[in-house]
């Protein structure tokens, strides 16, 4: 059985850096980790490489894994060539999509300077991104009443207003928000509403 990779061990497999985006929907990921070199991030952003990066294009069009070397033939802006001067010489991309109705996919791009990734390392990174993708799936046990209350919190309504509109007590609204926070793993009502929005629930 293959060992399970933890987030704090990724840097040992990808010491040159990595980027992970979990559950990207229409615009933003639910969670994002950018551990690439700061100089490369600045260069990449300034030159708007996201629009031309063959690694990112592959991640949105495929599932599974690919090495950066496999993608180098379709790189009109030489993004991968330029990445090498920042220590990102060898890389792999992992893309995960489970057919969810929200259209959310997750991907991770991982780099080394010294050598190509082994098959075992590739499998471990693929398993990690897949596991995190499913861990970040939206909860399915939120009630319509809880979602209604969260939607009103997101719209800036106060507890008293929500209770009045819904025709319930403030205590009932508090309980709905408390339940929603628990199910979403949020600390505040505002955070719960933001998460529900990111998941496309409200």
Describe the structure.
With 202 residues, this protein is an alpha+beta fold. Helices cover 46% and strands 16% of the residues. The protein has ten helices and five strands. The chain has a five-stranded antiparallel sheet with strand order 2-1-5-4-3, sandwiched between helices. The longest helix is centred in the middle third of the chain and has 17 residues, at 119-135. The protein is elongated. The chain starts with 9 loop residues before the first helix and ends with a helix. The model has no long low-confidence stretch (mean pLDDT 92).
Give the total of beta strands. 5
Overall residue-averaged pLDDT value: 92
Low-pLDDT stretches are none
First and last CA, distance: 40 Å
Q: Considering DSSP H and I runs of 4 or more, what fraction of the residues is helical? A: 40-55%
- How are the strands of the largest sheet arranged? 2-1-5-4-3
Number of helices: 10
Give the class from helix and strand content and strand pairing. alpha+beta
* SSE succession: HEEHHEHHEEHHHHH
Estimate what percentage of residues fall within beta strands: 15-25%
């Amino acid at each position: 059985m293959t060992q399970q990779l933890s987030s704090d061990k990724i840097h040992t497999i990808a010491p040159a850096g990595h980027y992970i985006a979990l559950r990207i929907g229409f615009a933003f990921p639910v969670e994002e980790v950018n551990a690439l070199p700061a100089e490369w991030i600045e260069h990449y952003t300034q030159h708007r490489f996201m629009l031309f990066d063959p690694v990112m294009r592959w991640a949105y069009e495929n599932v599974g894994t690919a090495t950066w070397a496999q993608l180098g033939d379709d790189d009109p802006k030489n993004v991968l060539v330029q990445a090498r001067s920042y220590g990102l010489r060898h890389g792999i991309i992992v893309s995960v999509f489970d057919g969810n109705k929200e259209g959310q996919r997750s991907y991770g791009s991982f780099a080394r300077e010294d050598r190509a990734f082994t098959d075992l390392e590739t499998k471990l990174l693929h398993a990690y991104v897949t596991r995190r993708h499913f861990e970040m799936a939206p909860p399915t046990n939120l009630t319509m009443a809880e979602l209604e209350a969260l939607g009103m919190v997101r719209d800036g309504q106060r507890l008293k207003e929500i209770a009045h509109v819904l025709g319930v007590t403030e205590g009932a609204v508090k309980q709905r928000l408390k339940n929603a926070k628990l199910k979403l793993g949020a600390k505040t009502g505002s955070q719960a509403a933001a998460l529900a929005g990111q998941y496309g629930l409200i």
